[in-house]
Write the structure tokens for this entry.
Amino acid sequence: MNISNRSAVERIARVLAGQRYSANADGDQVSASAEVEAEWSHFVDDAVAVLKTMREPDGQMAEVGDVAVWERMIRAALPEGELV
């Protein structure tokens, strides 16, 4: 299994920035990598909100995995002070 060298929050924030700026999504830039690099940190709050939503797996997810492990992993990905 591959393990990222970036936090889950940063990876989600980069995806959200890419979605905003890239012509491959909702943006208008053919090559948005520079914009994503410069702007991803502005999407951190949105990324944290996504992770908070994912704390509870849905029924399909629970059927194939360990719910307690999932919850611990998501909580570990949240920045300190964001566990509420």
